[in-house]
Amino acid sequence: MKPPAPLPRSGSKKGRAAAFCNLPLLLLIGAIQFLVIYSPAIDRYMVMVTKGKPGFPSLLLDGRRGFKLVEEESILEPRVRCDFADPRSDVCELEGAIRIRGSTSEVFVVTPAGADGLLAANVTGLAPGMNATSWTIQPYTRKSEARVMRSIATLTVRVVSPGDAPPCTVRHDVPAVVYSNGGYCGNYYHDFNDNIIPLFVTARHLGGEVQLLVAQKQAWWFHKYREIVDGLTNYEAVDLGGGDGDGEEVRCFRRATLGLRSHTDLSIDPRRAPRNLSMVDFKRFLMWRYALPREHAIRTDEEEAAGAGRRRPRLLVVTRRSRRRFVNLPEIVALAEKVGFDVTASDLMSASSATASAKNKAAGGVGDEGHSRMADASKLVNSFDAMVAVHGSGLTNLVFLPMNAVVVQVVPLGRMEGLAMDEYGVPPRDMNMRYLQYNITAEESTLSEVYPRAHPVLLDPMPIHEQSWSLVKDVYLGKQDVRLDVRRFRPVLLKAIQLLR
Asked: Do 76 and 177 contact (CB within 8 A), yes or no?
């Protein structure tokens, strides 16, 4: 009789083999227990990973840009809030499944069909008589000016079912702002008033996480103001008309704003702006983007207390190359120096053109002059404590002056006082600066050398205003220069120095 075979010792090859054979069974049993206990949490996690949710982006890639949403979430009822009552601009804010096709200038708001077969969408703010499933909007801030609005691109907004919407070719996980870069683009005042400040109001609170879709995009404009644009968006602005080869794309968003919010001339109403943004915020934004060193102007009382080594306040006299020039500029400069200013006369743009051209040539680049002039002009203006200029776009440079600086606007003949106050009188006050206005007399206008003293152009401009703005522009803005009466102007400069205390 054979003795019983000995049991395998722990750790022997045979024992380890037996334990290994039971391992798959043990793992299977453990996996089943885990799924029974944790399956609800896993389901929620997989939904977040594959479809994304606010604060938890999808981990699937669409092959274009970073982490994107690859599949549409279930389409909920979208929300559309429009404002067609504002006198300056029409704006629509869209939330939901938004698709934008540049080639046809169409914006699709995708919505599920309701139980009754009708499209379900919460649309508010349309003008009386507008169709809640299809309407048009011109995304420019001069809606009351029919002449210029005829040249502005029109977007068509359509509320459609999923089957009637074009498929997405590009998906974005940031909101869109859609607007026109046409109209008065290229005029320095309108660049800020119609584009830059409204864009700041509409997009600044998003902290750069916004995609600009630009109808009638002017590439040179975006180059000239690239410091400003780059401070408002982290992404390259898209030419909605396809100038970048992008026209056939269908871009999909969860939020989009059509049009820019515009409050008043060259200013912001904090009560109507996101996060109560103001013109002081805008001024500080420009200081940051152009690296401007001076936040506050000189205090003359502090300089007087310093004694013999005190600095004099600096005055910039803005000259013009076309009409509304100072024809007795040397007298004005001499007067300003006599009352206590260090004076520089410059038209700002051409003053830096030589520097810009030299920089551009050294870099081997082409077409950089506008951008270089902006950089140079902003720093030049920021170095002054006061500015004097005849009504016109040159006054727009006041946005670069330090706070507490003094702006003196010389208003030409022609009952232009109200316009001058609206465009350049209110903004300095909104930027914590001081403002003085000097209205010239008929004797100080070169129109007195063209027309008899009793002519209506000199005595009563109102009938010309009532006839047409084009005539006002032609006569009072296009044919007039200024010869300041230095004795009459002297108290204005003395007041400017007093305001710097």
From this structure: no
